């Protein structure tokens, strides 16, 4: 009798990067078995990919609706237990909703939905279902991000006074500066890509990282987008001033035209007693600053780390783990929840993170369009 | 017949840090001889300090007015040629004005004045005088800052799209979080410290660094200050959104409550072809980023550097130079100007930098007080 | 019909770190299916672990000999194709030999054997077998290590003049400084741990990295070990001077008492035209130094990298990959060889690396014991 | 009545880098007045340079012997008190000896002499003279080097087990690889440059740094030089194994063909409780490693630093000081000694450092020439 969780995959076939990331993450802790899938809307491609990676072809379905219909016919002990949604963004909501409505657990790529309205509907569906819903804000899986969260929770920084998170990339340069490309690529077409490019794709990760690590909620924001060209309809750069409770202020900086930046997600959190700084491209180093003591550099795997952090480290100190491991930690947390095992708050991002994220994205668009005014987030 | 320039010092006596910095800087390239001074408003302290550092006591004056009066009686070939103004901020303007009016060259600490209005009056006085006026925005003296400027000027980045400069310190924490201290220290008393603490003291350096390196002018700003406590009257943290010509946007981040940050001035400039990143605490490393090529790390003293950069390096590569050397480079530039020698644009910050800086400071205060609105700078 | 390679695992059960590393590595590129195993000499533990990670229990054998015997009874198309040997060191040789003699492919942890003599016997067995033999010198799987190799091969450094590789750890401090522990732990018992601790366990990785990246062979060595205590019988620190062809010299530094070092493997290679520096704890950064040009920082995933490097990168630049990915790349190379597909030299360490490594270890022991004399390696 | 010490300069005229370094260092703490000099063996050049930097020409002498003769005629209260010897190496000994014999204090560039024999004679002369003798091992002036020394002295590392110091440069590449240049340059001519190039010029700094920071003496060494070419007579690369008391071992690595290295002096000291790492090119960062605690990063100017360290810091944390400041700290220590003020052990390198250094250099040559054997240093 297998102990592995039966996992279905929606999307992520072929050379899909997100597909590789989720597959590897699902394998890493020996918790999941890919049991069925709709890797690709094209059935031949779907089957071919299943064969390539050795997924039993009798559980490869021609489309999502068939997937649900056929799996529901199976007895519960054979049925796929959880689905990973790796499809284009606009499909996240209908798929997640139907899955939850039918009692499947869900692991969903971000953005969770294409609007706050959808997000709230999904939130309701989730409440009714009682199923597990994990949103893959991948970066919360890094051991040193988790260490920040736990140390902040236990008071290592004292009262927080200032946050500064940033997500800088440069990859859109080759598109945005070319008039032909920028008018044709789906990424910059609001009909296909949603209401925001830069904030929706990456800025929201920085937002999530602030709320995840500090445990505080952002109250209101003021944003300024940059479209760079008159004929471009989507933000490729955006700075967001943020206000939190109790005179805490901060900012979220995001850009897709930060030339030469690769995947520059970073965060700095300044408190009364100390501060933390962390950068995604050197994820195994966490810097704790103080006004009076030497800076300390925390690394994964040491006994001085919290349980939440150590739970996400498989090897002794000095053996670098990367983004696969980070995603694997989220899958690990979801596995515990699916099995009804005890798990800690923070082991995977939740429905609430998804709702907050959509709220944030919509608020930044509203703020920018209204002339850079303060917009409150829902509490 | 001495070739050294006769230098007078106003302020900077005793243990004054700014005094040490300027004295050392004046010595480094063998260009200046400290010939007279009013180191201290207390005449005994003034004389004692002059003896301690071996400045001839017959040119130590009891106050600034006496200094000017007595020096003017001396024949031109004996008279002090240039004065360094290191006094409290509110004295910069009256001293600089009187010195310029009397034909002295001036090296002035920043902020140049306490208001834009004063700055413009000084600008007029300077035009009439024909004297040299150097503003010690110290950080523009670093060889790698100068290298950025020259490479940007020659097109290394292509069109600039985004700027992000930051100046984070944490030193005011010990004051601001203590109700007694924050209500009594002069730094947080608007009557003594001027209209801004954080932006006026450090944010303006970041502003200057952007304009110095890019050669672009900031058009308009939107700022958000943080006072942290209701009973505190001065900004201890401020974020400023900036707009420049031609859809260029950016931001200036400054804080005095960024716990554990020491003197964290940094700049990132993203252009169409490449980007630069530089940090004051590792001033001998300049990072050039590209979307398609490996990042390059420029260092001082190499033949690949520009003349402006090499002119500020005294030793072969690998011999770290620091902030004294940076200030010394500004003194070196001023010396060339004072002697009527050829010098390059950029060898020292000018009256215009001072006027722009005061404009920026006042605009940020206005923006914040008006509810975070866009305020245009004068062109 | 499955395309996955049938993989057997010997050792690595329970919480074994090396077990996790190999299992994850085998999953990452969807090439292997764990089909059978002797995870543990204790059969109950063996079975329990198989169930825990969902390996079919009918292919779980009570011991290695049974494993071979039973698998050989199976038709070739069902039989396990390759075995990963993760057992204690002294078992590597007999297991690898028997597997090769029976036509299994082998993936073997290092050290390959316990002596050069055994290594040569294995080399002969391998030649006869025609099977694939991959030695898991894990660090050669990092994309930037592979990039070094390829760039050196294509002349980026010119003639090499100096190599300096280092492997510093501090973990043995807690044992070595405690008289009771150092006399009882198997790691410091020559009967159990072989002829060398520090060189055998980690120094040999530095040796391998030099030969892997430069393509040069080390000719002769002079070593100096440190035992720290009179009653300790095994080296816990060793420095090795090395000589290569053509006046190239260098050194290998290794230590297990380098307090606070975690897994500090690094290499510097200095050539006539340029140099490379790389550190295992920041594996995604490769530094190329020049006397006349700015240092360049190479990172994985960019089009400027070689095919060998890019073949080991699954995600776009800026997504850190770690040691699991490095090991996975070795498994990927082995998979190509096992399937008879085309693969590049350097995709996995070979039998020759194993023989060279044993030769190196024995030579360092001989050199130290003979009073730090030069000892030639076999050519 | 001036309080500044009357300083004479021997050598260092014109564009001499060492001249700039010493002049600036002498100015930085307002302790010295350059009162006389023989900057240059050519009298016209000597006088011209004196005028250029404003040294009174009546104390500019045509040669060293005249310098001593004329200064001795002056009353003690006018006479030059201390001389800085910046001449070619072979002149250090005769000048220092004559100066000490005549009661002058001496600040001497390294290497102190050209042989151990000379060094010992000078040591005797020094003892008799009672004068102050400071050897400018510049790198001991860095605040964080001094912090290492003081923390080690107070037990922060516990018993030391391993040292690893390195001095890598690449500048000689352009000479050594060119047959014409390498046979003609004085640097590689034993008649002009002494018995060692690489060890004598830079390796000895690494040696000194080990003894300075640990307070331990190196007992014996085994060295291996590299000449790279048969027709080259001087070492351009050398590795030295070192043994100290009580089973402490270590190594000194030095190279002038380490392509792309600029001035790569570094040190790592591993003790029972903790370790220190420091690099000259980032001199304001000192890393303290532990097996069980997060690494700590010490920086200058903080209250947590020792008096010896803080005495060499003029500005608040975060204001980078460089090599001029480091040399200035040595001049500051010498000034205290010259004035008979209290100073700490370690404020400037001494005659003993010079004797030890020459002993080390000669021993490394002997070891290499005898076939890489162990050579004891004098105790």
UniProtKB/TrEMBL annotation, chains A, B, C, D:
Lineage, top-rank taxon, reads Bacteria
Q: Which residues cross the membrane?
A: none
GFO/IDH/MocA-like oxidoreductase domain ranges (all copies): 145-276
Point out the coiled-coil segments of this chain. none
Instruction: Please provide, alphabetically and separated by semicolons, the GO molecular function terms listed in this UniProt record.
Output: nucleotide binding
* SUPFAM superfamilies given in the database record: Glyceraldehyde-3-phosphate dehydrogenase-like, C-terminal domain (SSF55347), NAD(P)-binding Rossmann-fold domains (SSF51735)
Could you tell me which InterPro entries the record lists for this protein? Answer: Gfo/Idh/MocA-like_OxRdtase_N, Gfo/Idh/MocA_oxidoreduct, GFO_IDH_MocA-like_dom, NAD(P)-bd_dom_sf
The Gfo/Idh/MocA-like oxidoreductase N-terminal domain, residue ranges: 6-136
The name on file for this protein is Putative dehydrogenase
Q: Which organism is it from?
A: Maribacter vaceletii
Lineage runs: Bacteria, Pseudomonadati, Bacteroidota, Flavobacteriia, Flavobacteriales
């Amino acid at each position: 009798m297998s102990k592995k969780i039966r996992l279905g995959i929606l999307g992520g076939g072929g050379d899909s990067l997100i597909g590789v990331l989720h597959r590897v993450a699902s394998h890493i802790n020996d918790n999941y078995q890919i049991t069925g899938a709709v890797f690709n809307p094209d059935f031949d491609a779907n089957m071919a990919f299943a064969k390539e990676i050795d997924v039993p072809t009798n559980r490869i379905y021609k489309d999502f609706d068939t997937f649900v219909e056929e799996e529901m016919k199976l007895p519960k002990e054979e049925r796929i237990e959880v689905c990973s949604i790796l499809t284009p963004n606009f499909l996240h909501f209908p798929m997640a909703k139907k899955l939850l409505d039918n009692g499947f657990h869900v692991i969903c790529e971000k953005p969770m939905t294409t609007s706050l309205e959808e997000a709230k509907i999904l939130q309701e569906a989730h409440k009714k279902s009682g199923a597990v819903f994990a949103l893959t804000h991948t970066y919360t899986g890094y051991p040193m991000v988790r260490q920040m969260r736990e140390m902040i929770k236990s008071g290592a920084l004292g009262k927080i006074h200032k946050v500064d998170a940033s997500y800088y990339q440069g990859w859109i340069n080759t598109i945005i500066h070319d008039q032909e490309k920028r008018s044709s690529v789906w990424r910059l077409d609001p009909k296909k890509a949603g209401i925001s490019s830069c904030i929706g794709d990456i800025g929201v990760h920085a937002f999530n990282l602030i709320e995840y690590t500090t445990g505080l909620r952002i109250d209101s924001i003021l944003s300024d987008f940059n479209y760079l060209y008159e004929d471009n309809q989507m933000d490729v750069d955006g700075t967001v001033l943020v206000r939190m409770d109790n005179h805490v202020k901060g900012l979220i900086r995001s850009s897709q035209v930060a030339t030469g930046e690769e995947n520059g997600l970073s965060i700095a959190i300044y408190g009364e007693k100390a501060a933390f700084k962390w950068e995604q491209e050197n994820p195994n180093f966490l810097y704790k600053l103080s006004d009076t003591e030497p800076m300390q550099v925390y690394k994964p795997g040491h006994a001085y780390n919290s349980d939440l952090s150590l739970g996400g480290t498989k090897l002794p100190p000095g053996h670098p783990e990367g983004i696969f491991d980070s995603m694997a930690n989220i899958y690990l947390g979801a596995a515990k929840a699916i099995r009804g095992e005890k798990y800690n708050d923070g082991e995977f991002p939740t429905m609430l993170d998804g709702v907050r994220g959509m709220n944030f994205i919509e608020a930044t668009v509203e703020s920018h369009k209204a002339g850079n005014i303060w917009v409150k987030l829902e509490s």
